Amino acid sequence: AKQNGRNGFSFFDEAMDYRMHRHVSLEQNLRDALNHDDQFHLCFQPVFDCHSLQPVSLEVLIRWQNSQGEWVSPAEFIPVAEDSGLIVELGRRQLNYLFQRLESWKDGPLDGLRISINISTVQLARDQIAENLLRRLRWSHIPTNRLTVEITETSLMTDNQQLRDNLTMLHQHGISLSIDDFGTGHSSLSYISQLQASQLKIDRSFINGIGQGSSDEAVIQATLALAHQLGIQVVAEGVETEQQLAFLRQQGTDLLQGYLLAKPMFEPQLLEFIAAQRDI
Ligand code: C2E
Ligand code: CA
Ligand code: CA
Ligand code: CA
């Protein structure tokens, strides 16, 4: 596209310029936001058992409302936070807030649900995240096996001592590892089982291909067969249609997540949702 048309070059440059500018101002805004305490919020998306269709866990997803009141997507600001190293501070904040919520949920309707958190490769390589997590769990009297840490395939491929130490420590203390966006990277299933991941999440792009006559269904079937042979649990993410749901249940997927079943919610809405599920 670079040399398309007469004005190809200038268009390209302008687009580059815009992206660069957006990146720089996002980074600055993010830095400012970390000086306030009220711009980041957590929402929670339920994950369902494939057989019973009951919610069994919650994935914690961060939200940012900037000082202009706009909601900025984590798909946009997490990469910026990673590039700038701000992810380390952001991650610590997020854990503060999460553990505050977990303590307030004690003996309530959310107490029985498992918790999954996203930890980026940069956090694993630059922060003592395992130690931090374990300390907080201990303080809050929350069993380590309630927690799952979602990492991407990049984390498995990165050769970094601190990252390895973090993953080993999490595993040794009974925190489950889940491979997020599975299928988009290059790691093999045998490698994943060596690293003692207990779960993988098939990337949304494959779920999207169900019923579209693509090879995605075959990839899902093969992934399920191999993962189950290796004792790895499989989550399908991004389930949006009844057709996808039916296929995934028929194929014996373990867990399901997606807009069809529940969207990410802030806590008040989540409480209503869980209460309504109990009444069914
Ligand atoms: P992810 O971990 O793959 O999270 C799943 C994303 O898919 C979430 O986007 C979720 O809202 C969205 N989603 C769930 N169900 C559906 C569906 O049925 N259809 C579609 N189209 N989307 C669905 P979100 O919340 O915008 O997060 C984007 C990414 O940002 C996450 O992808 C994760 O990589 C990252 N992220 C979010 N929160 C955190 C965090 O606290 N820490 C770190 N390190 N990364 C985070
Ligand atoms: Ca995730
Ligand atoms: Ca994912
Ligand atoms: Ca993702």
UniProtKB/TrEMBL annotation:
One of its GO terms (biological process) is regulation of DNA-templated transcription. This is EAL domain-containing protein. Keywords: Coiled coil, Membrane, Transmembrane, Transmembrane helix. Residues 23-278 form the EAL domain.
